[in-house]
Amino acid sequence: MTAPPTTPNAPANSEERYYNYAYLDEQTKRMIRRAILKALAVPGYQVPFGSREMPVPYGWGTGGIQLTAAIIGPDDVYKCIDQGADDTTNAVSIRRFFATVADVATTEDTGAATIIQSRHRIPERPLEDGQVMVFQVPQPEPLRGLEPRETETRAMHAYAEYGLQYVSLYENISAFGRIAGGAGYPVLIDERYLMSPSPIPKFDNPKMDMCPAILLFGAGREKRIYAVPPYTRVRSLDFEDYPFEVQSWEQCCALCAATDSYLDEVVLDDQNNRMFVCSDSNHCATRRAQGHAGPMAGHSLAHLDEEPAQ
Amino acid sequence: MAYVAVKGGERAITNAHAWLAETRRGNPAVPELSVAQIREQMQLAVDRVMAEGSCHDPELAALAIKQARGDLPEAIFLLRAYRTTLPRFGASVPVETEHMAVQRRVSAAFKDIPGGQVLGPTFDYTHRLLDFKLAAEGGVPAAAPVADETMPAAMPTIASVFAQEGLLETPAVAEDAPEPFDLTREPMAFPAARDQRLQALARGDEGFLLSLAYSSQRGWGSTHPLCGEIRMGNVSVGFVPEELGFEIEIADVTMTECLMLSGFASLDGELPQYTTGYGLTFGHNERKAMSMAIVDRALRAAELGEEVVAPCQDSEFVLYHSDTVEASGFVQHLKLPHYVDFQADLLFLRRLRKEQAAARAAAATTDAMKEAAE
User: Fold this and answer.
1) Which of B44-53, B317-326, B359-368 is predicted with the least confidence, judged by mean pLDDT?
2) What residues make up the domain containing A268?
3) Distance CA B112, CA B99 (A)
4) Residue ranges per domain, chain B?
5) CA distance B301 to B308
6) Does A283 touch chain B (CB under 8 A)?
7) Which of B318, B317, B256 is nearest to B287 (CA)?
8) What angle is formed at CA B38 by the lines to CA B37 and CA B39, rounded to 5 degrees?
């Protein structure tokens, strides 16, 4: 389903709004914009910022929400996804937040959006020049799992001392025969800063390399913003003899027959019956509208995302 | 089907919130709690919400408790999210706790101290027996008897008792001190100076600080604390508006302050003195103020040349993990769908099992062939 951009019910007059446009006060927005500019100027570097308490809990997208609030305007078209889907509860909740506080048009159509806020996925449709992708980041520090101290990891970034990360990948190989890590796979930005791409599956990592869109990452609880400017090299760490590889499936999408999208596994019953469907709900719906049909086309799951948009 | 449940739409959210509102109200045959009742009769809950919410407003704290169905961390979160939207028109002048209108003041260091020991409204020495009369009758208790002598307007502090001899470290008051660090505007930074640390502890989760203080007492970074003084009462809050240029009183707030005496040290070449830890909270909250004072002192380990060996002495460990709102949000974000990451894990695990099963089967075949050949 490719829904046209919808304009939510705007307040009858602006005086009825209890909060500033896009919730944050203008001073806070300016503070965040300065952090964004610094992040774009030093790609992959984590810029500390005075993250505010937001009306949603930490860990639920406060960093992404602050980034969006700082850059959004009435002419924007906003898309929000979680796990690739527009209809997951937290995505619905955040989209409704901006529809209310920023009077902004929302869409599920990846191509029509100017700002795409996401948790855990990059859409399948290639991002374009002029689009901004806002990632919600639970843990901005790629080295945190290896070194719990912020004072240490900041020094490691300052010296580009990433040996520990390579040792960890090597330990994977000796333990499992290959590099583990399915999501949040570390990347090197422009051959300088090691960066966490947020917990997107490594399937999405190649989409960041030389991407025409601006990629902004916000970690509210950890109070960090970082960015990848357009057309920047993004390299997933690997070894010559153990090259980086992405996930693949033996099945195609059961609904739209896509063979090149990230698939979710849906448990159908307790008899080990499963179906695999596109994680990117808009990608899947668009393909179905174009006439593509998978082996389970017409399954009730296909109708779920036809719930009327807000 | 489970999958439908996680694909909740806007309708599901709205309905869930309607159910929440209904549950919050409870049985409609039972009279509704008013915000005033919570403010007056659940004062200590209100105090905790104001302290960890970093916002002194008993009315709003009581409203938050009502809205949160009595879940104090949720109420603290509500108050914080409101506080962050407020305009800032300046900072108060430091409150003078030595001029506190004391309701309670005790010292464990001396049998008697100038001003006397004042028990005040305390749970201490109550026998923790459920009072079934309270369930049956309620009503208004008889007024507490009033002392014959009035208390001094300014109760001398424990520090003043030691002042003559110089037995107690006395931080110098800098007239031109810089603006204190503000965690609500700036991210945590390390090394953390004491202003940043005390702010984090004052906002920190009471249970977390209590456990840390307890761990210190049990030897995990012991500070050998002695309760120099704990005082609770009202202090006036002064503010100097730019337009006036002189101080006016803008509020009268209840606070609890604790000074822990804790081990000797020779600071800056001085003779050995007692070192101290400091705790201060909004409202009446001795558990929090005492815990805070012990943890503050434990975190001075590096400054005082002690080896940092225990969690309570480690600034990064304590300060990064003390905030209720941060901790509660992040732990509970695990409720959000993670099926994309989980699918990546599943793919990896299945591939690993397939490969290892194949390797074992191959090894078994080789062994069987060897045995057959023998």
Assistant:
1) B359-368
2) 248-310
3) 20
4) 2-83, 97-139+149-322
5) 6
6) no
7) B256
8) 90
Contacts of B331 in chain A (CB under 8 A): 59
Report ipTM for this prediction: 0.85
A245-279, pLDDT tens digit by residue?
999 999 999 999 999 999 999 998 888 889 999 99
Tell me the pLDDT tens digit for each residue of B67-117.
999 999 999 999 999 999 888 888 899 999 999 999 999 999 888 888 889
Alpha helices for chain A (secondary structure H): 26-41, 62-71, 89-101, 150-158, 163-176, 205-208, 281-289, 301-304
**Residue B332 with chain A: CB contacts under 8 Å:** 57, 59
* pLDDT tens digits, B287-315: 999 999 999 999 999 989 899 999 999 99
Distance CA A250, CA A252 (A): 7
Chain-centre distance of CA B48, in angstroms? Answer: 8
Whether residue A192 sits in one domain with residue A51: yes
Q: Which of A216, A236, A256 is the last residue of a domain?
A: A236
Residues A224 and A294 in one domain: no
- A29 interfaces chain B, CB cutoff of 8 Å: no
CB environment A239-271: b (16+ within 10 A), e (fewer): eeeeeeeebeeeebbbbbbbeebbbbbbeeeee
- Tokens 């609770």 locate to B232
Q: What is the pLDDT of residues B194-226, one digit of tens each?
A: 999 999 999 999 999 999 999 999 999 988 899
Residues of A with Cβ-Cβ distance to B12 under 8 angstroms: 89
User: Cα B230 to chain center, whole Å?
Assistant: 17
How close A18 gets to chain B, by Cα (Å)?
A: 10
pLDDT tens, A156-169? 999 999 999 999 99
